Predict the 3D structure of the following.
Amino acid sequence: NAGVTQTPKFQVLKTGQSMTLQCAQDMNHNSMYWYRQDPGMGLRLIYYSASEGTTDKGEVPNGYNVSRLNKREFSLRLESAAPSQTSVYFCASGSYEQYFGPGTRLTVT
Amino acid sequence: AQKITQTQPGMFVQEKEAVTLDCTYDTSDPSYGLFWYKQPSSGEMIFLIYQGSYDQQNATEGRYSLNFQKARKSANLVISASQLGDSAMYFCAMRAYYSGGGADGLTFGKGTHLIIQP
């Protein structure tokens, strides 16, 4: 039982490049989430998906897009990366307590 | 909108002592949940304990308990008999629950860095 998996674990991008962060869960959860964590801060919600086929903006959605591909998978896309998007990105799933993936450390230069 | 405040950026505690990590929250939603997560230096987020706004009793999970004072909007985490492995960042979080079964994401505090000293 893998729980929540994320790929990649680390990524370095140049300003303006695009990339997609992948997330999958095997716990049959309806709800999935993307957060970012910056130094000295708690996690902040980027987007969430309450069920397959629906997505909603969180606190900090600008510069990101998401796709809920199916019940298992929820991807986060940066279309044109900016240095301000340097952060650790966490995917989570669950309706009551949320189970988190291991995170993706992204650096934009 | 919800807000979580953790007023202790860092704490040093002697091993085997009990620890209280403070958390106050603000929300106008009548139905909500309160959570504590642990983030060790390895970076993963580990769920510790949950308290629902309508729960009559304080939640407990092993050495963790949540001191829930609803009128004061307080949800402090108590760790009994601290261990060296408890050294980590601790985050308080909350989410609202809506009629119809909906729920959005968690709102986190900025965290408390707990260091257990031998």
